[in-house]
Design goal:
With about 220 residues, this protein is an alpha/beta fold. The protein contains 8 helices and 9 strands. It starts with a helix and ends with a helix. The protein binds S-adenosyl-L-homocysteine.
Length: about 220
């Protein structure tokens, strides 16, 4: 069974081995400190605790997964949140990524389409004392307009395109980190930087494999 130190070592190693793609030989000390502090074993499904510090995704029920620690760390680093920032996350899932962000940002707003998962995540935040995370059950394609604008937006499921409302709800100068591509096909981790005027800047970081950000047709089966 691995421990948290091994998980951090694995993240460092994978950061180095992907540096030629990401341009990052190391992640920020603040991100690594947050990865050390949040107890991942509290976010995995019952019985999965022995695998909580493996550098891989794990099932959390409802056909969903808690993302791989390296990907969580990389996306957090790419987002570059500051302690005063308001961050929007789409795809609460277990709440692990939200918890990491809660240590690095001011307020975290997180939207999850599967109600059971958002209820479980909210209970976890309450139990573990993460007081600056706000959870909503809803369709992430629409963002969370009532709380906009955001300093940064992070999407933790793969969308076939970048949903327009997420760009609209981002402040100029803010970043959107999102895996884009069809489910079970080639997906790319994209960083969009919103410009005050003119075209937004787009950077492709790395090939990734995420569960899909389900669209309205698929949403029907959850409601
Ligand atoms: N950030 C999560 C990873 C969750 S996996 C974690 O740290 O555990 C992606 C999540 O996105 C799943 O829970 C899935 O239910 C959710 N999701 C899929 N489509 C969505 C949509 N349209 N709106 C909001 N959430 C969605």
């Amino acid at each position: 069974m691995k421990n948290i130190h091994r998980m951090l070592e694995d993240i460092k190693q994978e950061t180095q081995s992907t540096a030629f793609l990401t341009g990052r030989k190391a992640l920020s000390p603040e991100v690594m400190a947050a990865m050390r502090k949040v107890p991942r074993e509290q976010f995995v499904a019952p019985g999965m605790e022995p695998m909580a510090f493996d550098n891989g995704p794990l099932p959390i029920g409802y056909g969903q997964t808690i993302s791989q620690p390296f990907i969580v760390a990389l996306m957090t680093d790419l987002l570059g949140a500051k302690l005063t920032d308001r961050i929007l996350e789409i795809g609460t899932g277990s709440g692990y990524q939200s918890a990491i962000l809660s240590l690095l940002a001011g307020q975290v707003y997180t939207v999850e389409v599967i109600e059971d998962l958002s209820v479980e995540a909210a209970a976890r935040f309450e139990k573990l004392g993460y007081r600056n995370i706000h959870v909503k059950t809803g369709n992430g394609y629409e963002g969370w307009p009532e709380q906009a604008p955001y300093d940064g937006v992070i999407v933790t499921a793969a969308a076939p395109y970048i949903p327009e409302p997420l760009i609209a709800q981002l402040k100029a100068g803010g970043r959107l980190v999102i895996p884009v591509g069809r489910p079970f096909e080639h997906q790319e981790l994209i960083v969009l930087e919103k410009q005050e005027h003119g075209d937004n800047k787009l950077g492709k970081i790395l090939d990734v494999a995420f569960v899909p950000l389900v669209d309205k047709d698929h949403l029907k089966k959850w409601h």
